[in-house]
Amino acid sequence: MEGQNISDVIERYLKTILADSEHIEIRRSEIANLFDVVPSQINYVIKTRFTIQNGYLVESKRGGGGYIRIEKVNLLDDIDVLNSLIKVIGTSISERDAVSIIQTLYDENVVSRREADLMVVAIDKSTYSISDRQLEDALRANILISLLNRLRYES
Amino acid sequence: MEGQNISDVIERYLKTILADSEHIEIRRSEIANLFDVVPSQINYVIKTRFTIQNGYLVESKRGGGGYIRIEKVNLLDDIDVLNSLIKVIGTSISERDAVSIIQTLYDENVVSRREADLMVVAIDKSTYSISDRQLEDALRANILISLLNRLRYES
DNA sequence: CATTCTTTGACTAATGTTGACTAATATTAT
DNA sequence: ATAATATTAGTCAACATTAGTCAAAGAATG
């Protein structure tokens, strides 16, 4: 049985609301109060249960009038392709390999020509101006994976 | 709902007016009174929400008959839009300002929604996993400038 | 019993609000 | 003209109000 811990309860609460509305906007402390937990527990729930892999997009703002917004997004069909490419990338990738991955995306009609061009720029060695090759490849992997993750869903 | 703080409310108020007129001329104290805030809050709103990155030009005059004038500039009328944006970016840019620039490009139909989304990902703080703020902002400037330069060429 | 998941709270970071002080410009008095 | 005064806006730092991070402690699981 799921739901024996408070994180599961909070998860269900939020997902119930999201079943009706496209998105939900909460005040962290309010939810924390509602379930009598510390505020950072809300972060834990979001981090473990509202990931992009699950089809949720989260954004937030601090300061007065701050909020956490959770949106249910429409996952696309190319997820398998993206997953396998992300696995290939790992934590480090050369510019050459990165370009060929982007080429694959273009060949598979996942991205347009122009989108592919922009992605190539974003992983280009010369734009980083980093001399350390390992750092460069690690950074490129981070950026490329983030880009691929963005392609999982629309709007 | 987004915009629970008074700064957002004032921002919306001013932008609503700017939707009709090319520019708006306000008396700082009047707006401050209207929303029951201290006058310097108006400066805060302008400084954070009506930057050139957002496509707004602000000028003011002190003394009797003083005013603050906000103008919506059409960056695309200028053939050197990209140049001026690149100049604004310089060697370092915050995530907030970078997002503003990309938003402007989208508003002005320079990039599609999807392209803008990908660009935002490419300048997102969380994709870099760098703890050094200065390095982060410098890297972001490099990447954003490269992306803008790529937009010069059509494909 | 080892491992993973959950809970907690101290500390950090981002954003917004306020007011005292400063600076610029215009108006009035001399 | 010049000086004094009034009338605007600008700056900056303190304080307020949110959310994020991280690691340690506790609980559950297999």
TrEMBL record, chains A, B:
Keywords: DNA-binding, Repressor, Transcription, Transcription regulation. Residues 78-149 form the CtsR C-terminal dimerization domain. GO terms for molecular function: DNA binding. GO terms for biological process: regulation of DNA-templated transcription. The keyword Transcription regulation applies. Gene3D superfamilies: Transcriptional regulator CtsR, C-terminal domain (1.10.1200.150), Transcriptional regulator CtsR, winged HTH domain (3.30.56.130). Residues 5-74 form the CtsR N-terminal HTH domain. Belongs to the CtsR family. This is Transcriptional regulator CtsR. It comes from Paucilactobacillus suebicus DSM 5007 = KCTC 3549.
